[in-house]
Amino acid sequence: MSEAGSRAFILDRFGPPEVMRLAERPVPAPGPGEVLVGAEVCGVNFADTMIRRGEYLRDRPLSMAPGSEVVGRVIEVGPGVAIAPGTRVAGWVEAGGAYADHVLVPEHRAYRVPDGLPAGVIAALFLQGTTAEYALHRFGRVRPGETVLVHAAGGGVGGLAVQLAKIAGARVVATASTPAKLEAAREYGADVLLDSGTHDGLAERLLAAGNGRGCDLVIDGVGGPLFEPSLRALAFRGRYVIVGAASQRPSALDARHLLVRGQMICGCILARIIEEDHAEPSRALGHLCELARDSSLRPRYEVLAFEQAAEAHRRIEARELTGKLVLAAAFGDAEA
User: Is the pTM of this model over 0.90?
Assistant: First the structure.
C-alpha cells in the first residue's frame, strides 16, 4: 500500500465470499457533515454476508459493499462538523463499505467511545450489544426474578443478552445449536442449556425449563422452526422480542393465542430506535462500555487480519462463531 493509499473491499458481482475484492484507492475526503475515520477494527456481521450475496434488500446495488461498523479515530472532518479530529468513535455506515482502512461516516452516525477499552470490545458492544440492551429493557421490560429465553445464546447478540439478563436479576434459559455454543452460553451465566438443533419436543423442554409456567421473555434472533415452540412456551403476559432471522425461514403465527394469554410480540431493530430517540445508541453504548470496563460484561470477540474478510464470511455462514468477529485495520493493533 502506498503512503497515500487506502485498502478497501469492493464488490464487482454478487456471490460467494471470494467475490469481495481487496483494492487500493485514494484516501477519501470527507464532505459536509462527514468525518473520516482511521479504522482500528471493522466489525463483521451476518447482514454483511447477505449484502455480498445480493439478498440484504431488494434490488440492492453493487455499490453497497459489505461492512457497516467501524471503530477508530477521526482523522479529518468535513465542513460543518463539530467532532474534533482525534476523537475515538464507533461509526455506523448504513450505506455499507466499511471494510476499509479509511471510512467516511456521517457525523450523526459517529458515536464517541472511551479510550480505555480494546477496539474489539467496543465493536462487540456496538450494534450487537445495543440490540441486546434494547431487546431486554426497552422492549422486553425484563424484571428481576423473571425467566428469559435467549435463542442463539452463543452468538454476538445472544451471548450479550444472556449476560445482560443475568445482570438484571433474571433466570436465563439458553439455546444453541452446537456443544461449543452451549458451553459459551454456560460461561456467560445461563442457568439452563437446551440444544436447539433438535426441534422435536422443544416446546415441552422449554416449558419444563420455565418451571411449567413458561418463559416471561423470549429474545429470538433465529426464527423459523424455533418460533412456534417458543411461542407455545411463552408465559401468561409474556413478551416475545424478535432481534433477527438467522434461519432465513418464515414463522407461522395464530394470533388468537395472544388474545387469551395477554402476550405481546414485537420486532427490535436499531435503525428505528435511533430515528425516534436521538440520544441513542450513544446512551446504551456508553452504559455497555461501563459494564465492560468493570468486567460485569464480558464480550467475546476474535480478530482476523484485514485481508481475511472472505474467511470471516465463510465462518459466519458456517455458524462456527461464538461472539463477535472483527477485522484488524491499518490503525489498530494485533490484539484489537
Answer: yes
